[in-house]
Amino acid sequence: MGPASANPLEEKSLKKWDIDGTLEVLALDNAALPLPLSLCNFSSFALGLPPPPVHYSQKMSLLTDLINMNLSDTTEKIIAEYIWVGGSGMDMRSKARTLSRPVSDPWKLPKWNYDGSSTNQAPGEDSEVILYPQAIFGDPFRRGNNILVMCDTYNPAGEPIPTNKRHAAAKIFNHPDVLVEEPWYGLEQEYTLLQKEVKWPLGWPVGGYPGPQGPYYCGVGADKAFGRDIVDAHYKACLYAGINISGINGEVMPGQWEFQVGPSVGISAGDELWVARYILERITEVAGVVLSFDPKPIHGDWNGAGAHTNYSTKSMRKEGGYEVIKKAIEKLGLRHSEHIAAYGEGNERRLTGRHETADINTFKWGVANRGASIRVGRDTEKEGKGYFEDRRPASNMDPYVVTSMIAETTILWKP
């Protein structure tokens, strides 16, 4: 005769987990014994059962709780996410490190390094690239005292690597003549949301097309606005981070949106736009949607995506500033080809003279003319001072390049 069973209920009952997580013991001396979920840990161990099933919603709730954990309740340490521009000049990279205490001054942050051979920024035999912290923002994902850190990139000798466009821009913005003029920028970043599996705009039928453009610009409704939750989440996240985001709107092509950053002064315009792009890419990552900055994502009778750049100097904002604006526009016209070459890859597919653009080979300006290279607003003309809009930059432009080039041409360059 074998040893007595250690489990008094063994072979005397049929045991199962009910759908709501309640353990039911059936056919135990002709009586049912329900056990509440709170006793499951003890009961399952005592009865030799596996632990109760954890529903997917419970798992996600726990994950959300951990993600939203406030570290400041238990430690002074913070997490700093270092962000930089990758080898394509448009891809964003980041990695995180622990700091012993909160930091608000980027100059007090440690430099760091990464494997540049894995980002197409250095050869494998000499792969170390150094990150120099330049600007700090609040982290809308980890929150608390945690931070996002915009960095630029250097080789170990302290020289900027080719994809570091911030270094040259900072030199221009630190020029005494530029500092005196306090250049302001308002950057209009257009982008397209794509379905992940098919790389086709959000809201479009797979392999097909929606109705023609017209009802989508600033549109409302399930058949006109696609991805608004992503857009609103990004808006609030940027405000939390301390980015001077000034608005959002649906664009002319369905699945396309725009956010605006500014007015921002000098180099900060580039810092803020790059971090706003990073935050947007993180949000689309969570949403399972692909973010595209392609200046012409869909061929045919559809609007492209730009990054219209609004600009003014102190002299333009003063009485008599309209004459300063006209002289600045004249300078921009003289260097049109140089600016076009620096205003984004694939821009020739967008600047066709159609869909609210000027032809890429022609420079022209006008008041309230969205088919011009440079547009001056009615209010600026009426008041005799203000700002103008450079409509040429593509959505994939580097804001450090575009903002500094406009300042260099209009303030420093002597024809």
TrEMBL record:
Read off the Pfam families from this record: Gln-synt_C
Q: Its domain of life? A: Eukaryota
Query: Any idea of its EC number?
Result: 6.3.1.2
Q: Recorded GO terms, molecular function?
A: ATP binding; glutamine synthetase activity
Among PANTHER family, the record links this protein to: GLUTAMINE SYNTHETASE, GLUTAMINE SYNTHETASE CYTOSOLIC ISOZYME 1-1
GO BP: glutamine biosynthetic process
| The protein's enzyme class | ligase
Species the sequence originates in: Trapa natans (Water chestnut)
Against InterPro entries, the record matches this protein to: Gln_synt_N, Gln_synt_N_sf, Gln_synth/guanido_kin_cat_dom, Gln_synth_cat_dom, Gln_synth_gly_rich_site, Gln_synth_N_conserv_site, Glutamine_Synthetase
| A GO-annotated cellular component | cytoplasm
List residues of the GS beta-grasp domain: 78-158
Reaction equations catalysed: L-glutamate + NH4(+) + ATP = L-glutamine + ADP + phosphate + H(+)
Name of the protein this chain belongs to: Glutamine synthetase
Keywords, comma-separated and alphabetical: ATP-binding, Cytoplasm, Ligase, Nucleotide-binding
Q: Tell me which family the UniProt entry assigns to this protein.
A: Belongs to the glutamine synthetase family.
